[in-house]
Amino acid sequence: MADPLSVGVNLEAFSQAISAIQALRSSVSRVFDCLKDGMRNKETLEGREKAFIAHFQDNLHSVNRDLNELERLSNLVGKPSENHPLHNSGLLSLDPVQDKTPLYSQLLQAYKWSNKLQYHAGLASGLLNQQSLKRSANQMGVSAKRRPKAQPTTLVLPPQYVDDVISRIDRMFPEMSIQLSRPNGTSAMLLVTLGKVLKVIVVMRSLFIDRTIVKGYNENVYTEDGKLDIWSKSNYQVFQKVTDHATTALLHYQLPQMPDVVVRSFMTWLRSYMKLFQAPCQRCGKILQDGLPPTWRDFRTLEAFHDTCRQ
Question: Which UniProt keywords apply (predicted)?
Protein backbone atom coordinates (compact mmCIF):
# COMPACT_ATOMS: atom_id res chain seq x y z
CA MET A 1 0.00 0.00 0.00
CA ALA A 2 1.42 3.37 -1.01
CA ASP A 3 2.27 5.97 1.60
CA PRO A 4 -0.58 8.55 1.58
CA LEU A 5 1.91 11.39 2.07
CA SER A 6 3.79 10.50 -1.14
CA VAL A 7 0.80 10.10 -3.45
CA GLY A 8 1.06 12.50 -6.41
CA VAL A 9 4.79 13.27 -5.90
CA ASN A 10 7.49 12.29 -8.43
CA LEU A 11 10.26 11.22 -6.09
CA GLU A 12 12.91 10.99 -8.81
CA ALA A 13 12.17 14.54 -10.01
CA PHE A 14 12.11 15.64 -6.39
CA SER A 15 15.63 14.28 -5.85
CA GLN A 16 16.86 15.97 -9.05
CA ALA A 17 15.26 19.24 -7.93
CA ILE A 18 17.26 19.13 -4.69
CA SER A 19 20.46 18.70 -6.71
CA ALA A 20 19.39 21.59 -8.95
CA ILE A 21 18.92 23.80 -5.91
CA GLN A 22 22.44 22.99 -4.74
CA ALA A 23 23.81 23.78 -8.23
CA LEU A 24 21.92 27.08 -8.27
CA ARG A 25 23.32 28.07 -4.90
CA SER A 26 26.84 27.28 -6.13
CA SER A 27 26.30 29.40 -9.23
CA VAL A 28 25.05 32.35 -7.20
CA SER A 29 28.03 32.00 -4.86
CA ARG A 30 30.41 32.16 -7.84
CA VAL A 31 28.73 35.39 -9.00
CA PHE A 32 29.33 37.04 -5.66
CA ASP A 33 32.89 35.68 -5.54
CA CYS A 34 33.50 37.25 -8.93
CA LEU A 35 32.20 40.61 -7.71
CA LYS A 36 34.31 40.32 -4.59
CA ASP A 37 37.54 39.53 -6.44
CA GLY A 38 37.09 42.30 -9.02
CA MET A 39 39.59 42.89 -11.84
CA ARG A 40 42.82 40.96 -11.26
CA ASN A 41 45.56 38.97 -12.94
CA LYS A 42 46.04 41.32 -15.94
CA GLU A 43 48.81 43.84 -16.53
CA THR A 44 46.78 46.47 -18.40
CA LEU A 45 43.51 48.08 -17.29
CA GLU A 46 41.81 47.12 -20.56
CA GLY A 47 42.79 43.48 -20.13
CA ARG A 48 41.48 43.41 -16.57
CA GLU A 49 38.14 44.89 -17.62
CA LYS A 50 37.66 42.41 -20.47
CA ALA A 51 38.55 39.42 -18.27
CA PHE A 52 36.22 40.60 -15.51
CA ILE A 53 33.28 41.14 -17.88
CA ALA A 54 33.77 37.77 -19.57
CA HIS A 55 34.03 35.95 -16.25
CA PHE A 56 30.99 37.74 -14.85
CA GLN A 57 28.88 36.95 -17.94
CA ASP A 58 29.80 33.27 -17.74
CA ASN A 59 28.69 33.15 -14.11
CA LEU A 60 25.40 34.87 -14.92
CA HIS A 61 24.74 32.41 -17.73
CA SER A 62 25.36 29.55 -15.27
CA VAL A 63 22.84 31.04 -12.83
CA ASN A 64 20.27 31.43 -15.62
CA ARG A 65 20.83 27.88 -16.81
CA ASP A 66 20.52 26.39 -13.29
CA LEU A 67 17.41 28.46 -12.59
CA ASN A 68 15.71 27.23 -15.78
CA GLU A 69 16.58 23.66 -14.90
CA LEU A 70 15.08 24.09 -11.40
CA GLU A 71 11.86 25.52 -12.83
CA ARG A 72 11.60 22.60 -15.25
CA LEU A 73 12.06 20.04 -12.46
CA SER A 74 9.60 21.81 -10.17
CA ASN A 75 6.89 21.28 -12.75
CA LEU A 76 7.71 17.56 -12.85
CA VAL A 77 7.64 17.07 -9.08
CA GLY A 78 3.87 17.36 -8.79
CA LYS A 79 1.75 18.18 -5.75
CA PRO A 80 1.25 15.97 -2.70
CA SER A 81 -2.13 14.53 -2.05
CA GLU A 82 -4.40 16.64 0.13
CA ASN A 83 -5.92 13.58 1.78
CA HIS A 84 -3.66 13.64 4.84
CA PRO A 85 -4.70 11.59 7.89
CA LEU A 86 -5.41 14.67 10.01
CA HIS A 87 -8.80 13.36 11.12
CA ASN A 88 -10.90 16.02 12.86
CA SER A 89 -7.94 18.29 13.57
CA GLY A 90 -7.60 19.00 9.87
CA LEU A 91 -10.91 20.85 9.95
CA LEU A 92 -9.71 23.42 12.53
CA SER A 93 -7.91 25.57 9.98
CA LEU A 94 -11.02 25.60 7.75
CA ASP A 95 -13.13 27.55 10.24
CA PRO A 96 -15.11 30.02 8.05
CA VAL A 97 -15.90 32.49 10.89
CA GLN A 98 -12.57 33.46 12.47
CA ASP A 99 -14.01 36.41 14.37
CA LYS A 100 -16.58 34.33 16.23
CA THR A 101 -14.80 31.02 16.72
CA PRO A 102 -11.01 31.55 16.37
CA LEU A 103 -10.30 28.11 17.82
CA TYR A 104 -7.33 27.29 15.64
CA SER A 105 -5.38 30.49 16.40
CA GLN A 106 -6.17 30.18 20.10
CA LEU A 107 -4.86 26.63 20.21
CA LEU A 108 -1.63 27.72 18.55
CA GLN A 109 -1.21 30.58 21.02
CA ALA A 110 -1.90 28.30 23.98
CA TYR A 111 0.66 25.82 22.70
CA LYS A 112 3.31 28.55 22.44
CA TRP A 113 2.59 29.82 25.93
CA SER A 114 2.71 26.26 27.30
CA ASN A 115 6.17 25.76 25.85
CA LYS A 116 7.36 29.11 27.23
CA LEU A 117 5.95 28.32 30.68
CA GLN A 118 7.65 24.95 30.78
CA TYR A 119 10.97 26.47 29.69
CA HIS A 120 10.92 29.28 32.27
CA ALA A 121 9.75 26.92 35.01
CA GLY A 122 12.78 24.73 34.32
CA LEU A 123 15.11 27.71 34.56
CA ALA A 124 13.51 28.90 37.80
CA SER A 125 13.73 25.43 39.33
CA GLY A 126 17.43 25.22 38.53
CA LEU A 127 18.16 28.63 40.05
CA LEU A 128 16.17 27.92 43.22
CA ASN A 129 17.93 24.59 43.74
CA GLN A 130 21.30 26.33 43.46
CA GLN A 131 20.38 28.98 46.05
CA SER A 132 18.46 26.74 48.46
CA LEU A 133 21.25 26.36 51.03
CA LYS A 134 21.82 30.12 51.18
CA ARG A 135 18.30 30.84 52.43
CA SER A 136 18.78 29.59 55.99
CA ALA A 137 20.05 31.52 58.98
CA ASN A 138 23.26 30.74 60.86
CA GLN A 139 23.27 27.17 62.13
CA MET A 140 24.58 28.09 65.59
CA GLY A 141 27.78 26.15 65.05
CA VAL A 142 26.10 22.81 64.41
CA SER A 143 28.51 20.61 62.48
CA ALA A 144 27.54 18.73 59.36
CA LYS A 145 27.94 15.38 61.14
CA ARG A 146 25.36 16.25 63.81
CA ARG A 147 22.73 17.55 61.41
CA PRO A 148 19.70 15.26 61.10
CA LYS A 149 19.12 13.35 57.94
CA ALA A 150 16.64 14.51 55.33
CA GLN A 151 13.09 13.94 56.54
CA PRO A 152 9.86 13.30 54.62
CA THR A 153 8.91 16.24 52.42
CA THR A 154 5.18 15.65 52.05
CA LEU A 155 2.79 18.39 53.04
CA VAL A 156 1.03 16.25 55.68
CA LEU A 157 3.46 14.99 58.31
CA PRO A 158 2.71 12.84 61.36
CA PRO A 159 1.98 14.87 64.51
CA GLN A 160 4.63 12.88 66.38
CA TYR A 161 7.27 14.03 63.93
CA VAL A 162 6.17 17.67 64.30
CA ASP A 163 6.31 17.37 68.09
CA ASP A 164 9.80 15.91 67.90
CA VAL A 165 11.07 18.76 65.68
CA ILE A 166 9.58 21.44 67.98
CA SER A 167 11.03 19.68 71.03
CA ARG A 168 14.52 19.65 69.52
CA ILE A 169 14.28 23.36 68.64
CA ASP A 170 13.10 24.15 72.18
CA ARG A 171 16.20 22.44 73.58
CA MET A 172 18.47 24.36 71.20
CA PHE A 173 17.54 27.78 72.66
CA PRO A 174 17.44 27.82 76.47
CA GLU A 175 16.36 31.48 76.59
CA MET A 176 13.33 30.70 74.40
CA SER A 177 10.37 28.64 75.62
CA ILE A 178 7.96 27.00 73.17
CA GLN A 179 4.51 25.73 74.16
CA LEU A 180 2.78 23.53 71.60
CA SER A 181 -0.99 23.03 71.45
CA ARG A 182 -3.55 21.67 68.99
CA PRO A 183 -6.88 23.35 69.71
CA ASN A 184 -8.35 22.67 66.27
CA GLY A 185 -7.26 19.14 65.49
CA THR A 186 -3.87 18.13 64.12
CA SER A 187 -2.60 21.60 63.17
CA ALA A 188 -0.13 22.89 65.73
CA MET A 189 -0.04 26.32 67.34
CA LEU A 190 3.05 27.56 69.14
CA LEU A 191 3.39 30.17 71.86
CA VAL A 192 7.02 31.27 71.79
CA THR A 193 8.22 33.35 74.74
CA LEU A 194 11.55 35.09 74.16
CA GLY A 195 12.98 36.00 77.54
CA LYS A 196 10.99 38.89 78.98
CA VAL A 197 10.92 40.78 75.68
CA LEU A 198 8.07 39.45 73.56
CA LYS A 199 5.70 36.61 72.82
CA VAL A 200 5.03 35.14 69.39
CA ILE A 201 1.99 33.15 68.30
CA VAL A 202 2.97 30.82 65.44
CA VAL A 203 0.18 29.14 63.46
CA MET A 204 1.42 26.03 61.68
CA ARG A 205 0.01 23.80 58.98
CA SER A 206 1.73 20.48 59.58
CA LEU A 207 5.38 21.61 59.75
CA PHE A 208 4.89 24.70 57.58
CA ILE A 209 4.48 28.07 59.30
CA ASP A 210 1.32 29.80 58.13
CA ARG A 211 1.38 33.12 60.02
CA THR A 212 2.81 34.79 63.12
CA ILE A 213 1.63 37.43 65.57
CA VAL A 214 4.20 39.22 67.76
CA LYS A 215 3.10 40.88 71.00
CA GLY A 216 4.76 42.35 74.04
CA TYR A 217 5.73 40.19 76.98
CA ASN A 218 3.06 41.73 79.23
CA GLU A 219 0.27 41.69 76.62
CA ASN A 220 -2.56 39.21 76.75
CA VAL A 221 -2.29 36.51 74.06
CA TYR A 222 -5.46 34.59 74.95
CA THR A 223 -9.11 35.15 74.11
CA GLU A 224 -11.92 35.12 76.65
CA ASP A 225 -12.46 31.38 76.18
CA GLY A 226 -8.80 30.63 76.93
CA LYS A 227 -7.60 30.01 73.36
CA LEU A 228 -4.67 31.69 71.66
CA ASP A 229 -5.69 34.94 69.98
CA ILE A 230 -4.39 34.62 66.41
CA TRP A 231 -6.20 37.67 65.04
CA SER A 232 -5.61 40.65 67.35
CA LYS A 233 -2.57 42.82 66.69
CA SER A 234 -0.25 44.16 69.32
CA ASN A 235 -1.11 47.45 70.99
CA TYR A 236 2.43 48.71 70.49
CA GLN A 237 3.85 49.95 67.22
CA VAL A 238 7.24 48.34 67.80
CA PHE A 239 5.73 44.84 67.97
CA GLN A 240 3.53 45.55 64.97
CA LYS A 241 6.72 46.31 63.07
CA VAL A 242 8.29 43.06 64.26
CA THR A 243 5.15 41.19 63.14
CA ASP A 244 5.53 42.60 59.62
CA HIS A 245 9.20 41.63 59.57
CA ALA A 246 8.34 38.11 60.77
CA THR A 247 5.90 37.75 57.89
CA THR A 248 8.68 38.81 55.51
CA ALA A 249 10.98 36.24 57.11
CA LEU A 250 8.43 33.49 56.45
CA LEU A 251 8.52 34.36 52.76
CA HIS A 252 12.33 34.35 52.79
CA TYR A 253 12.93 31.05 54.59
CA GLN A 254 11.33 28.74 52.05
CA LEU A 255 12.73 25.24 51.53
CA PRO A 256 9.85 22.83 50.86
CA GLN A 257 12.20 19.86 50.64
CA MET A 258 13.32 20.35 54.28
CA PRO A 259 10.58 22.02 56.36
CA ASP A 260 12.37 21.34 59.64
CA VAL A 261 15.29 23.49 58.45
CA VAL A 262 12.84 26.29 57.67
CA VAL A 263 11.37 26.21 61.19
CA ARG A 264 14.81 26.08 62.80
CA SER A 265 16.07 28.96 60.65
CA PHE A 266 13.02 31.05 61.50
CA MET A 267 13.46 30.40 65.22
CA THR A 268 17.14 31.32 64.93
CA TRP A 269 16.15 34.58 63.27
CA LEU A 270 13.48 35.20 65.92
CA ARG A 271 16.00 34.61 68.70
CA SER A 272 17.98 37.64 67.48
CA TYR A 273 15.25 39.86 69.01
CA MET A 274 16.47 38.92 72.47
CA LYS A 275 18.13 42.35 72.63
CA LEU A 276 15.42 44.27 70.83
CA PHE A 277 15.68 47.29 73.10
CA GLN A 278 19.45 47.08 73.66
CA ALA A 279 21.14 46.42 70.29
CA PRO A 280 22.07 49.60 68.36
CA CYS A 281 21.55 50.02 64.63
CA GLN A 282 24.51 48.72 62.62
CA ARG A 283 24.38 51.68 60.25
CA CYS A 284 23.58 54.81 62.28
CA GLY A 285 24.78 53.45 65.65
CA LYS A 286 21.68 54.73 67.47
CA ILE A 287 19.21 52.73 69.51
CA LEU A 288 16.16 54.94 69.02
CA GLN A 289 15.03 56.58 65.79
CA ASP A 290 11.61 58.21 65.62
CA GLY A 291 10.93 56.70 69.02
CA LEU A 292 11.50 53.11 67.84
CA PRO A 293 14.44 50.71 68.32
CA PRO A 294 15.96 48.90 65.32
CA THR A 295 13.22 46.37 64.52
CA TRP A 296 14.74 44.82 61.40
CA ARG A 297 17.07 41.82 61.59
CA ASP A 298 19.12 40.76 58.57
CA PHE A 299 18.14 37.30 57.38
CA ARG A 300 21.72 36.02 57.12
CA THR A 301 23.84 38.03 59.54
CA LEU A 302 21.03 38.74 62.07
CA GLU A 303 22.31 42.30 62.48
CA ALA A 304 19.93 45.00 63.73
CA PHE A 305 18.82 47.92 61.54
CA HIS A 306 16.17 50.61 61.59
CA ASP A 307 13.63 50.46 58.77
CA THR A 308 15.10 53.55 57.13
CA CYS A 309 18.71 52.50 57.67
CA ARG A 310 18.48 49.04 56.15
CA GLN A 311 17.72 50.56 52.75
Answer: Nucleus, Transcription, Transcription regulation
